Amino acid sequence: MKKTIPFEIFGANQSIYFDILRLAELEKALGCSINDIIQRQDAGVHFCLAALPIGMKQHYHKPTAAFFAEKIEEHLATEGASLDDIAVPIVKAILASGIFGKEVADRAISVDGELDEEDEETDPTPKNVKKETAAKK
Length: 137
Hints:
By secondary structure, the chain is mostly helical.
């Protein structure tokens, strides 16, 4: 199942998504791994121009970086618009792909991307960390 993120900046009823093949294509276009991009939080113009034609190709026939450059320029020209309006949903779509695990994917596709307060209170310990017992000193 494709985990899509709404992306209606360039048109109504549009979404963006990445699967393994699209992520591989993005890595090739950027010349580095998805892990590197996410760790560096490097989501600038080059990132957006590489990611949009790949993540939104279901909406456009053979989209190009030049096509999306024009769309980005139009978006930035509108009052209050910023590059973050474009970069954040792209990053969410990458996270929603499941490449960083199911929990991260589920959080990326949730309404606000945050854990419920209830979930945080129940057990903040990561699953791969053993709990210390009271007997151990």
